[in-house]
Amino acid sequence: MTLLCVLLLSANPNAPETWHRYEFQRIRMGIPVKISLYATDDDTAKHAAQAAFARFKQLDRILSDYDPDSELMQLCARAGSDRDIPVSQDLKVVLEHSLRVSRKTDGAFDVTVGPLVKLWRKARRKRQLPTAEALTEARAAVGYESVVLDAQSSKVRLIKPNMRLDLGGIAKGYTADQALGEMKKHGVSRALIDAGGDIVVGDPPPGKDGWRIGMAPLQKRDGPPSRFVTLKNAGIATSGDAWQFVEIDGQRYSHIIDRQTGYGLTERSSVTVIAADGITSDALASAVSVLGVERGLALIEKTCGTSALIVTLEEDQPVVHASKAFPADE
To answer: Which residues bind Mg(2+) (predicted)?
Structure first.
């Protein structure tokens, strides 16, 4: 765990605290997780960050679809068994939220796309499209309607054989929320957690209105931010194909899968969603990517406490579409 401390005096000259800025980074869930926080002493900062990273590690063992021993994969191994499987509180909460978003988006967000995701991971490695037969077989195992969750007993049944859940569109947001909660238990509420682009922020830095967050441009993934927003006590997530995609026979396919077609999205876009927490911003960013501009913005406008910015390419030029509540550029 790396640490950087920068002294920052409180904007209020009568305030007794002297704030310090600390930055930590570790690899969690296969990605760099960065934490920026403000505390009044080293021990408080270190203990809070350690607790946050420990929560990331704990949840990765529950929610990962890469680890065959994770709770999620153990549940999937029992798909089609006609058995109700007890699940942990964390997995239950994530599945509850996932199913709620699935119903709201008519399946544009669907954590049962795991069989299709597995095919497209192979496609990216081999740079070869899945066969029609493989797509048909995978699609037969997809459908959030075949996930039966009894929230009261915390039991889940996966009705179809070969179902495979993939929480890649929601797990990072939930985990960042949980990590921030752990930091607050250790006396740190002025914090930002960046989990591979899924960002959760708590109270603002001392003397500031919020955390200033830069949004990467659609066409240049390593370029300077194209826009800035200032947030506090919120989640912000961006979904798009800037980093994960494959080009096959001249066509670019995103890692984001449309369950209706079984294919990765082919229209270039970047979707940024702001919500009250990370689990909501993460899931809705994925859903809006699949829904497209018109239906995606309609979803956001009727979802309380959310806003979105969608950037598309038209004749190789970025076109910006924003919901009514999305913050103006700074």
So the answer is: 169, 282, 286
